[in-house]
Every structure is written in structure tokens, then in C-alpha cells.
Amino acid sequence: MAPSRSPLTRASIVGAMTGLLGRDAVETGAQQLREASVDRFRKYTAVHGIYDGPIPAAIVYPSSAAQVAAVLRFAQDNLVNVVPRTGRTATEGGLETVIEDSLVVDGSRLDAIVSIDPVDMMATVQCGVGLQRLEDTVRARGLTTGHSPQSKPLAQLGGLVATRSIGQFSTLYGGIEDMVVGLEAVFPDGTVTRIKNVPRRAAGPDIRHIVIGSEGALCFITEVTVKLFRYQPENNRYFGFLVDRFADGIDALRELVTAGYRPSVCRVYSPEDGRQHFADLIRGRNLVVLVAEGPKPLADATAGAIEELFATRPHERLDGTVIQHWFEGLNWGQDKIDAEKAAMLAHSHLGFTTEVSVDWSRAAALYDAVMTRIRADFPRAGDLTMLGAHSSHSYQTGTNLYFVYDYTINCSPREEIEVYHQPLNAIIVTEALRLGGSMVHHHGIGKYRTAWTEQEHGSAYYLLSGLKQAFDPRGVMNAGTIFPLAPGAGGSGPASRS
Ligand SMILES: Cc1cc2nc3c(=O)[nH]c(=O)nc-3n(C[C@H](O)[C@H](O)[C@H](O)COP(=O)(O)OP(=O)(O)OC[C@H]3O[C@@H](n4cnc5c(N)ncnc54)[C@H](O)[C@@H]3O)c2cc1C
């Protein structure tokens, strides 16, 4: 069913929420609602106070799975669009309320660390627990989640699972899909479902994956159980190597990973991207960053393999402490978000990113194709102040490419998305698809890559669309996310705003 505006009035939606959750759990302040209508995809318009899209009826703060179930059941019965949220770091429009009078369901009051089990090596937390808080708590016991996205200081477990997030140490620990043992989620008919914690099972398809990456478009995640690992930073060994070509860096990563080594960090930066982080050290070259981690004999063996690999390749070696210090300041807390806002306003300038994945054999070709096409085909190429890329997550069969682009805005703030961000995003996404890769590596489809969801999945789109029909038959969960908004659906989604 196509999502559309609820027949209920805003006042009756708010009244029903107050009845279900109590006054303290229902926010209707005008500015809060405006800010809740967008996410970081619209960070430039937002910093100028421009909120052109549909404004939600309320932000609600349930404090139990039963309350989430009551809210979702009400939404389904009354065709009210629901936008789940937790840490609010979404970058792809997943938090945009494209239907007027949506309910933003904020899980941040579900913030209990339920259990930490150092024998079975799992932690169970509610969806609103911040990853930084969980990590600090388990580190005090000599453990780690192994999950370290750059948004760690802000993101919460519900959103991290909903977006299939991945962290800086992924080559060793994997993405969130490798970490989730079990979880609890609430579906729009009010069903509360618990996927139990077991080490592995062959009891049918792995149903965790219906929820992991569902971006709020199928269900609301209320609780998550993740794996724990021993935290042994004293064994870490940090490496930086400057190489001439981006392709040389990619080849070094491929050699190491396909040989069976698992450095926790495995990255290569183009000169332009690398310069942002390492300034004058780069001098026009590409930077390979590696970290060997784990029990000492394993970390030493990985470090030995790294040294051996580069012994046969032309390079200049950087001091490992430079890499270690860089990592210590890499994550983004509220201070960096605030500084970015001030800079956007002061300089009419900003940066965005688009992350995709591709097989090893086509990674260098994808990098070259995107760089060439953006410089040749993007009409505002002259406004770009930086265009670069890095590979930051590697696998047996391939790697990701994370394109970064900064530009000066020579149009009105309102036009910025259409004039700059969307055309740049489209070039990267279409080149990744053309070369057989995935159009999205870890930020989620959100609302701005839905034009390519069918192409991404091909004949398997049958399975994906079947999940939406089965679990959200009335189309009330995060309309326009993962699945394109149907033409003529109520509200003014990304398409109609363009
Ligand atoms: C500075 C910065 C750095 C980042 N670095 C990384 C990185 O290194 N790796 C990475 O993978 N991502 C990164 N991201 C993207 C983003 O932080 C992650 O995708 C993160 O997982 C989002 O978590 P959140 O709690 O902020 O979710 P939110 O922003 O609140 O929501 C994200 C999406 O998940 C859905 N959602 C949220 N909570 C729930 C729930 N309880 N149930 C169902 N659906 C829900 C929302 O509807 C939305 O579609 C970064 C973002 C920023 C701003």
C-alpha cells in the first residue's frame, strides 16, 4: 500500500500519544519538530534554518518495548508514518519525515545496559544505549565491542544495527552484522519479537538479517545483544606507508587480506583525502594505514607480514606514532558537529561523502572512473575544493571506496542539494553499479539512493520487496526509506522537493 498522510488530525495524533505515553514523553515544540524533519543529508539547509519538507506531528519517547508496540499499533491502525530514531547521526535522509504529521519515535530513553557477560562474551543493551557508553563500560572490564564507527561518541545501538554500520577495526571484528548475536524488535502490528542469542544455528534462514539494515522501514529495534572481545591495546602495532599510486595501495591491501591476515585497520587514502588528515606528510602520494591487533603472537605475526609485504614494494614509511595519534582524534562528537555548522555558515562551504563497494579487480578502475567523470561531467566541478577517496574496509573478495568531496556553494542554500550533492552522489552510485559493485557500503540507502534500489538488487529485489509487504503491509514504517516513495504519495519527499 502506498504511504499517504493519515486521515487523523495532528491534534488527535498528539492526543493519542499523550494518552499512551504520558505528557512527558511527547514533544511538540515547533523548533524540535522542524529539526526532527531532516538529518545530516540536509545539514546545509538545516544550518540556515530551512525546513521545507513535511513537519512531524510529534516526537515520542517510549520507555519500554510495550510502549513501542502501542505506538506502532496505533500508527498502523491510523496510517500514521513512523520514523524511528536513536542517535540522530544518519547521513542519507533516513530520518526525514516525508509524510506530513509523521511520528518520530525516539528510542533514546530505552537506555539500559541490561547485562554484560564476560563468560559467554556478550552484552545486551537497549536500543538507546550510546556505543561510546557501552564501549567505556566494557573496557573497564578489559573487554571491547570491537565496533568503532567514527560516529561512536553519538550513535546508539538501535541506529547502528538499523543501518548495518561498520567501524574502523572491521577487518578484524567485522561489521555490525558480524557482531549482533540476537535482538528484540517491534513490528507495526505490535508484535514484539526476540531473536535469541545462540552461537550459530541452521534453523532456517538467518532472520537477524531481516532486521539488521532495515533502516526503520520494517520494524523498531528495542534491544540488541552484541559480541564482546578481549581488549588488548598494549599489543597494537601501527603502520603508515606512502605509495605512488592509489592502485598500489589497493593491491597491498588485497595481498595482505587474501593471504589470510586480518589487520584490524586496513586503509588506503588518495593524496587529496590523505592531505586532510596528514597535511604535509603526504606530498602528493597515497597513504596505506594498517594496525596489527589481537593477542601478542597474532599481532606480531600480522605486523611481520605487513613488514614483509612492504619490503618488496617501493614506499616511504611513516612513524607509527603519527598513525596512532591520528586515530585517537578521528571520531566525531558534538564538538566537531558544532564546529562544522559554524564553518558552513561562515564560508558557504561543506563536505559530503558517498561510500560504495566493489571487487578487488575493479577497485582501482572505479576510483579512476569516478575521479574522471566528476571532473569531466559535473557542471560545478570548478566549485570543488577537494575530491578524493579512501578504502577503509576490506574483505576476501573486495573492498569499499569512500569518496569524499568538498565544495564552495555558489547557489542559494535551498538549491545546494540539487545543484551539488545529488549529482555528485549519482555519479559515484552509477559508476559503482556499472562496475558490478554495491551502491552503498555502510551508510544505508536512506531516502536518496532509492532510485537505484531495484537496480542494486536485480532479481533479488523480489525478496526485499516481499519483506516490506510481509512486515509493513500498510506502509507506515519510514516511508521513502530503502523503497522509493510512490509517485503521488502524501507529503513532499526528496523527489518532489527537487
Ligand atoms: C560524523 C559521522 C561519522 C559517521 N561514521 C560512520 C562510520 O564510521 N561507520 C558507519 O557505519 N556509519 C557512520 N556514520 C553514519 C551513522 O552514524 C551510522 O549509520 C549510525 O549507525 C547511525 O546510528 P544512530 O543511532 O545515530 O541512528 P539514527 O541517525 O537515529 O538513525 C539512522 C537510521 O536508523 C533508523 N533507526 C534508528 N533507530 C532505530 C531503531 N531503534 N529501530 C529501527 N530503526 C532505527 C532510522 O530510522 C534511520 O533510518 C557516521 C555519521 C556521522 C554523522
The share of residues in helices is 25-40%
- DSSP helix count? 19
- The backbone outline, from C-alpha atoms, is globular
Strand order of the largest sheet: 15-12-14-13-17-18-16
Q: Unreliable stretches, pLDDT < 50, 5 or more residues?
A: none
Q: Work out the strand percent.
A: 15-25%
- Ligand inventory: flavin-adenine dinucleotide
Q: Specify the structural class.
A: alpha+beta
Distance between the termini: 24 Å
Number of strands: 18
Profile the largest sheet: 7 strands, antiparallel
| Average pLDDT for all residues | 96
Radius of gyration: 22 Å
Walk me through the structure:
The protein is globular and about 70 Å long. It is α+β, with helices and mostly antiparallel strands and 498 residues long. The strands form four sheets. It has a seven-stranded antiparallel β-sheet, with helices on both faces. Strands 5-6-10-8-9 form a five-stranded antiparallel β-sheet. Strands 1-2-4-3 form a four-stranded mixed β-sheet. The mean pLDDT is 96. It binds flavin-adenine dinucleotide. The site of flavin-adenine dinucleotide has 36 residues, from β3, α6 and β10.
Helices and strands in order:
Blueprint: H1 10-21, E1 26-27, H2 30-35, H3 43-47, E2 58-60, H4 65-78, E3 82-85, E4 103-106, E5 113-117, E6 122-126, H5 131-139, E7 143-144, H6 157-162, H7 170-173, H8 176-179, E8 180-186, E9 192-195, H9 208-211, E10 220-227, E11 229-230, E12 237-243, H10 246-258, E13 265-269, H11 271-278, E14 286-292, H12 296-311, E15 316-318, H13 320-328, H14 334-347, E16 349-359, H15 360-377, E17 384-391, E18 398-408, H16 416-434, H17 453-457, H18 461-471, H19 494-497
Parallel strand pairs: 2-4, 3-4
Antiparallel strand pairs: 1-2, 5-6, 6-10, 7-11, 8-9, 8-10, 12-14, 12-15, 13-14, 13-17, 16-18, 17-18
Helix pairs in contact: 1-4, 10-15, 15-16
The structure holds flavin-adenine dinucleotide (FAD).
Flavin-adenine dinucleotide is lined by residues 40, 83-91, 94-95, 107, 127, 149-151, 155-156, 158-160, 162-163, 165-167, 215-216, 220-221, 332, 442-443, 478, 481.
